[in-house]
Amino acid sequence: MKFRVQHLTRYEYAEPVSLCHSIAHLKPLQTRRQRCLSSQLRVDPWPAVMREHEDFFGNRVNYFSIQQAHNALEVTATSEIEMTPLALPESDKTPPWERVVARLYDKGDGLMTNARIFTLPSPQIPLDPAARDYAAASFPAGRPILEATRDLMGRIYREFEYDPHSTTIATPIAEVMEQRRGVCQDFAHIAIAALRGFGLAVRYVSGYLETLPPPGQVKLQGADASHAWFSVLIPELGWVDFDPTNDQIPGEQYITTAVGRDFQDVTPLRGIFYGGGTHDLLVAVDVNRIADPVPAVPPV
User: Fold this and answer.
1) pTM more than 0.85
2) pLDDT tens across 168-219, in order?
């Protein structure tokens, strides 16, 4: 399955901005289940400096600097991605979660030991006792890792309310745990805090989810949005994604742009600017399927 993703971010300033420096995580990754066929980033006004590099986590990061006065900034990322589904074993056929933790300290297993950074607290995800206690019901001794994580994902989906007005990007985990409501970023952070509390390697995933309109209705362009979920490292399977906002294992409709310890590592667009005063922000995302061309029928 192929998709075309367009992510538009536009800032309009009350006063001119004389200088800005920004970094963007907007170009999709190459992973086992996705191949980025093409990706372009357009910045208006045209930046004086623009370059791309790969960060510590393997993400594609674009830095740009605009060194002329401007009253608006528009950043558009357009990408084409090909998705391939991954098959997972039965949940009860995976190893006990304690064995997965032990593998992180097996010096002969480079993939696992290199992931130990994802067991540690990070700027937005401290090791929260309440989150770990919440997850304990899903992680009794000896339970298979995939089964346990699926159970935790489902409980977050059922027991936390999706409420886009209840939190901000700075809302701490403790507050989300107390009020039992938030958005996809919050639910991913809660799960990560809980699983790291058990010593597992868990990372934050930022990307997009294709949303389909109700039957008989036309899809509204610009109505899609960025999405977030989490990923657990499981021996022999690699990183396995989980979406607690929708209670499902991400499939072909999930497109990954960046991974990190928490949201702060993968912010779609952030930076500093001089001047500007107050500003208005517009974000519009479109995720559309690309139909494969119909093969030509040779003449009889």
Assistant:
1) yes
2) 888 999 999 999 999 999 999 999 999 999 999 999 999 999 887 767 766 6
Report the C-alpha gap between 231 and 252 in whole angstroms.
15
Contact status, residue 83 vs residue 252, Cβ threshold 8 Å = yes
pLDDT tens for each residue of 5-64: 999 999 999 999 999 999 999 999 999 889 999 999 999 999 999 999 999 999 999 999
Contact 289, 17 (CB under 8 A): no
Strands (E), 212-291: 226-234, 238-242, 254-260, 269-275, 279-290
CA separation for the pair 162, 178 (Å, rounded):
14
What is the pairing mode between strands 181-182 and 161-162? parallel
Q: Which two tokens stand for residue 74?
A: 């528009």
Quote the pLDDT of residue 111. Answer: 72
Say how far apart CA 144 and CA 100 lie, in whole Å.
9
Q: Are 213 and 286 in contact, with CB atoms under 8 Å apart?
A: no
